[in-house]
Amino acid sequence: MIDIGSNSVLLLVMQTDGIVVCDRSHITRLSQGVFERGVLDPGAVERTHAVIATLAEEARQLGARRVVAVGTEALRRARDGAEFLARLEREGVVDDARCLDGEEEAALTLEASRRALPVPGEALAVVDVGGGSTEIAWQRAGRVSGISLPLGSVRLTEALVGADPIVASDLERLREHIATALEAVPADRDGPAGAPLVAVAGTATTLAALDLALDPYDPDAVEGYPVDRTRLEDWSRRLAALDVPARCALPGMEAGRADVIVAGLEILAASARRLGARSLRVSGRGVRHGVALQLAATEGLSGRSG
User: Mean pLDDT across the chain, nearest whole number?
Assistant: First the structure.
């Protein structure tokens, strides 16, 4: 399956027994200008379409019987998002394409994280910082809940960050905006506060890669990597003080993410504070894994699913 995110396009080819055959990503920045203008940028459309076509063909060569694409925040917000997905089906690039709503995205990410990183007890919280939105999902007292917030690394960088390196006033404005949005996350006894926290998606995996100084990237080293919240906050401050070329030069920095990583880390750190988590564990498993597992379970697919 192909996860069409606001910043990245991700390919997952998974066997129905959960074994991953291929899992990789390309940054295409589909959300470029979407949150300001409400429509997809033509250049972003064409580069993203080209990447999806290449990944879909790769999936089929790897044995995928069906290629499904799901869209997230950029396509939810763009007035022409539905047409982008319809074109993929019409041209035969994928077999099926649809947009996930925010709550569904959160729940699927939680299920993928629960399977990937078993934690003691039933309670679990998951934060997925994307380019256009952040999904927070939690399981407590037998209930699964989720919320999608208009906080994304690309979205907030475009709206609130005007200098490189980031000046103190922009950083403060960014933090205030994030804190206000996070007030929507419930803080009562049935909420996620105090549950073990898993962070998924590119911001989190890049954080782990930076902390480990990985060059090249090693997904096995990142999976389950623990990060103290203080360490996370230190990384955000350090990167905010650097310009983009200096961030790009750091071992572990994913190509194409350096300009938006600070906003992503600030969202992640503020989410951890809101959830009462002093540390988190990083996982490379996200919504794409949840969708693939759901397809295997509900459609009775055999062999590999893509």
Answer: 89
